[in-house]
């Protein structure tokens, strides 16, 4: 919960406290609670945008959750919810306004976004995890989908966090090294295709950044993403296997890439044409076995 400066906690028995003498909305002091409050608003707007972009065509992410936080729904509490904060800004949260409580299945992503401020795309990783837990046929497990998602998400990010630390970009655990690893593997497996991409100056950063950081969650439909992740997470060296999957994706469209020019090939790589993930995973396993 985020509390607007001047609003006391409900358990203090007060509805408001006068803070104008020590702080006010125009206070330029970096430690001002109002200054922090307004900066949080900017972050919440970005969160709101990302959340509404998460599988907008899926009814699951737009409908009210079956297990909302009762504290948020309590009209007597003095906490200002994220929903209310967003509604007070110039950008309206359309998906939130669709139901009175404003607590949708997609709202869970607000919480996880606040853990990784500035890391756009985290909702793309949270989404499949939450969907898997929240659609479990066991109602007792489904009820705790948010807690289970939090546990799995934080554990996954503890392994994957180096991709989002700029100071580590060029180290062996950074994202630049991993993107170049896709091309290094491609050079080993298919030199003709590798040199074709180099000739056209198609750098791995142009497409593998999204593939690797978001674990291919934007390249395929949600059921296919879950299928890929099922194989990915079952591998002990899961992030190396992800590089194999990316390499397999390139090799499977090699004929198109060899025949295309820069524009055509960039379109292929940014809107991957193969939807059969079983074929991709089979090819990745083949590359792994032949390594």
From TrEMBL:
Which SUPFAM superfamilies did the record assign? Answer: Ypt/Rab-GAP domain of gyp1p
Q: Which GO terms of type biological process are on file?
A: intracellular protein transport
Membrane found in the keyword field: yes
Domain of life the protein comes from:
Eukaryota
Provide the Rab-GAP TBC domain boundaries: 1-236
> Which InterPro entries does the UniProt entry name for this protein?
Rab-GAP-TBC_dom, Rab-GAP_TBC_sf
Give me the Gene Ontology terms describing cellular component: cytoplasm; membrane
Keywords, in A-Z order: Cytoplasm, GTPase activation, Membrane
Q: Where in the cell is it found?
A: Cytoplasm; Membrane
Q: Which GO terms describe its molecular function?
A: GTPase activator activity
Q: Assembly and interactions?
A: Interacts with RAB1A and RAB10; in a GTP-dependent manner.
Name the job this protein performs: Acts as a GTPase-activating protein for RAB35. Together with RAB35 may be involved in regulation of insulin-induced glucose transporter SLC2A4/GLUT4 translocation to the plasma membrane in adipocytes.
Name of this chain's protein: TBC1 domain family member 13
Species this protein is from: Hippocampus comes (Tiger tail seahorse)
Could you read off the lineage of the organism from its UniProt record?
Eukaryota, Metazoa, Chordata, Craniata, Vertebrata
